Amino acid sequence: MQEILLHVCCGPCATQSIIDLHQESYNLMLFFSNSNIHPEEEYLARLNSLKVYAAQINIPLIVDDYDPEEWFDLVRGYEMCKEGGDRCKICIESRLEKTAFYAKTQGFAGFTTTLTISPHKNTTIINEIGERLARKYDIIFLSKNFKKKDGFKKSLELSKQHALYRQNYCGCKFSMEK
Fold first, then answer.
1. What sign results for the dihedral spanned by CA atoms 12, 13, 19, 25?
2. pLDDT-based confidence at 32, cuts 50/70/90?
3. Which residue segments constitute the domains of the chain, with CATH numbers given?
4. Beta strands per DSSP E along 64-170
5. How far apart are alpha carbons 3 and 104 in whole angstroms?
6. What per-residue confidence (pLDDT) applies to 178?
7. Is the pLDDT assigned to residue 161 strictly greater than 90?
8. Is the Cβ–Cβ distance between 171 and 42 less than 8 Å?
9. Across the strands, what pairs with 111?
10. CA dihedral 114, 115, 120, 122 (to 10 degrees)
């Protein structure tokens, strides 16, 4: 069974993604790397909900450093971009790069992300970024579209079942303001 590092944006998005990966017989570890989330109270609400869920389903969780200043520096000049535009690509790439680097340095077979479960995210772009980073780090990226087969709808149902905190915006200050 291959060990895969799963980048997780929040507990609700993790639910169905984890089920899909377990059905494919992957052994998972969760990686929470989300310096984009604003404000810090929101970051902590998502992280704490994920910690509870990870404990319930007995999957280890690694929490990356929270460094919103670094994230704001990355997207400086892209503040006015529309959702899904260049700012989002930079954001996704920065989080997936941290995931790929951690996976490679810690001996995982590969990595993937829960981001593709969202109907608001472009799966093709996310998978292209992941595949590019996989080549850079010489590691496997599992290109997934977790929203297929009603994945997003199932994640909503599972979130309710597990009483997970569910946010109403992607995460960054700019998505909050839209």
1. negative
2. very high
3. 3-176 (3.40.50.620)
4. 110-113, 140-141
5. 11
6. 59
7. yes
8. yes
9. 5, 141
10. -120
Cα distances (Å, whole numbers) of residue 158 to 2, 28, 32, 168: 25, 18, 19, 17
50-57, long-range: CB < 8 A, 24+ apart: 50/8, 50/10, 50/11, 50/14, 52/11, 52/164, 53/11, 53/14, 53/15, 53/162, 53/164, 54/14, 54/30, 56/162, 57/18
Residues in CB range of 34: below 8 A, 6 or more apart: 9, 43, 46, 64, 66, 95, 171
Nearest one of 36, 34, 91, 27 to 63, comparing CA atoms: 34
Q: In this structure, what are the phi and psi dihedrals at residue 57, rounded to the nearest 5 degrees?
A: -100, 0
pTM of the model: 0.96
